[in-house]
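Much of what follows relies on a compact textual record of a protein's fold. A record is reproduced here so that you can trace the correspondence yourselves:

. . .
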Amino acid sequence: MKVNYEKANDQHIGTFVVYGKSSDSKLYYDLSVETPVQVTEADLKHAFECGRLLVSVTASDVETLYAVIAVTGNKAKTVDVVSSTATVTEWTAAAAE
């Protein structure tokens, strides 16, 4: 069994929200800045292991929050229901070097 301990800097965090950009399927820390920075693989993994990771996607000024169901390497997967069909979307973080 692997134990993930809450660190002091995680103590009062409710959730980690990252921003998905539909046009490139990448995850960013903030899309409101001029040059968005892509989420790192380490941050993606840490937030998922804490059980507090959400992906925010905005379309037509409507924000939708998705829970991440799996993280493999620098890929995160979310599920949406489109016309009664579950659809998995894969989001990409910046790969570890």
Q: What stands out?
A: The chain has a mean pLDDT of 90.
